[in-house]
Design goal:
Layout: H1 2-20, E1 36-42, E2 48-54, H2 59-72, E3 76-83, E4 86-93, E5 96-104, E6 110-118
Antiparallel strand pairs: 1-2, 2-6, 3-4, 4-5, 5-6
Length: about 120
């Protein structure tokens, strides 16, 4: 009985800690519809980092969604590098930059990360 109670408390504490580590995602961060957020963290100097896994989708479709989202927000695509399993995009607008990395991982899972910074 004691072991079950300790296990339940440990599980509840871990779940709360994991949930508490996720900061609210600002509207400026694009998150694909089927993304499973792994980490969402506000940076201490005003930026934001997001990491997610996308179980379905293609690099091309996701990168086109990202480009449309950020250009609609007034950002300019400054750099685009792509190969068979990775797309890196850099968007800039005045004193802001957004770097997006879309990478095909094992089991056809796409790892998606966004790094937003202000200068």
């Amino acid at each position: 009985m004691k072991t079950k109670i300790m296990l339940a408390l440990t599980t509840a504490t871990f779940a709360f800690t994991a949930h508490a580590a996720q900061d609210p995602i600002p509207d400026l961060i694009f998150v694909p519809d089927n993304a499973q957020v792994v980490e969402a963290e506000k940076k201490w100097f005003g930026g934001f980092e997001l990491e997610a896994n996308i179980p379905d989708g293609t690099l091309l479709v996701i990168s086109e969604q990202v480009k449309a989202f950020y250009t609609d927000k007034g950002f300019e695509l400054s750099r685009e590098e792509a190969d068979d399993d990775d797309v890196e995009l850099l968007f800039v607008k005045e004193q802001e930059s957004v770097e997006v990395d879309i990478e095909l991982e094992h089991n056809d899972i796409i790892e998606y990360s966004v790094d937003y910074e202000t200068k």
